Amino acid sequence: MGKFSKQETSWIFYDWANSAYSIIITTAVFPIFYKAAATKAGVSAANSTAYLGYTIAIATFILAMLGPILGTIADYQGFKKRFFSFFFAIGVGFTACLAFVPDDQWFLLLVFYTLATVGSAGANVFYDAFIVDVTTEERMNRVSARGFSMGYIGSAIPFLISIAIIVLAQSHILPLSTAFASKLAFIITALWWGLFTISLFKHVKQRFYIERQPHPVRSSFKRLGHTLKAIKSYRALFLFLLAYFFYIDGVGTVISMSTAYGTDLGIRSTHLLIILFVTQVVAAPFALIYGRLAETFTAKKMLYVGICIYILVCIYAYFLKSTLDFWILAMLVATSQGGIQALSRSYFAKLIPKNKANEFFGFYNIFGKFASIMGPLLVGVTAQLTGRSNMGVFSLILLFIIGIIILKGVPQPEPASHYDKDLNVGG
């Protein structure tokens, strides 16, 4: 397949840059810092957890609503980079601002966290859409997989630095408070994210676009409406998004709830952070392996493999009893979580018309965001009805089975010209 081009490498390195936000802000450091701030302000544990949940729901809703609308506008010539830059600046800026919020101002933390999340996820809509501009259809699986692989490695480095600072502060080896050490982690995230995005700004450009019209916003709403009315003509896209909605919900639920399972087993928080770090490291080469195997066996078949592994994960989680069991579960997840996400992105990119990439990745964003609702709900309801949390995890198998059945009906991607024939294509 040859070496990666300058454009491909620059695009790939944004995964390296932005993934630091996912693990440090979304998963590890910020939730702990926020809970401590809320407790200091006299907010009960139950209420602070609920407020964080509401905040995530609000940010998810904002992104789901804005994605297709802004994406449709961004398909016009020269708009994609502008929208990406806008959301990138919001994400990096408010991530840094988290470090300057007083320790007991939990509500302000949530406000800044909402804005940082909107910025991060919003930039990702346009970043994902740039894949059609930087590479060919034949190389998309490999390029997308390399992006996820680099993301795992790129997130592990600042995460390790941040955790080291926090642990050394807690051990009084560094003359810092734990709160200040956590704030340093926010600054490290913003700097890492910003520094490694410079290459994308320099070398990635919008090659496919729709020619500008006199009233771009009004015209964009008309195009969006036309797309929704003509959804039947995008049968492959619709079926894939429906399959994606189910199986990615299962993937996301397993990832988001894994720490809770470990806590229930009595695993200490320090050990959980180590397991999380090792999972990131192991996931990196497996994302690459999925990309390479997709070139031989097709992306669709490798998606089947990934979904089947997640079904095994749900079965194994049902019998989870020890720390060793949790390690095995984490490593099973690591083998496939990056591969599934990478190949889903590249498979979708092959199905969409290139000059409407932003609009369609806006829909991709909607399905991915709203999919994060059903899985946790299924786990909660099943666990309550049966009185057993492991039955809740086992119930996720239903989502993977539905996803794989629908995916079987998705035809192979057709040439982009099949969809682009009536539109002006730049580049």
UniProtKB/TrEMBL annotation:
Species whose genome carries this gene: Pullulanibacillus pueri
PROSITE patterns, alphabetized: MFS
Keyword Methyltransferase listed: no
Keywords carried by this UniProt record: Membrane, Transmembrane, Transmembrane helix, Transport
Domain Major facilitator superfamily (MFS) profile per the UniProt entry, residue ranges: 236-427
Protein name, entry field: Putative MFS-type transporter YxiO
Predominant location category: membrane
Superkingdom, taxonomy of origin: Bacteria
GO cellular component, one term: plasma membrane
Any GO molecular function: transmembrane transporter activity
Membrane topology of this protein: Multi-pass membrane protein
Family matches, as InterPro entries: Atg22-like, ATG22/LtaA_families, MFS_dom, MFS_trans_sf
Cellular compartments annotated: Cell membrane
Record has Membrane as a keyword: yes
Transmembrane segments: 12-34, 54-76, 83-101, 107-127, 148-168, 180-201, 236-258, 270-290, 302-320, 326-348, 360-379, 391-410
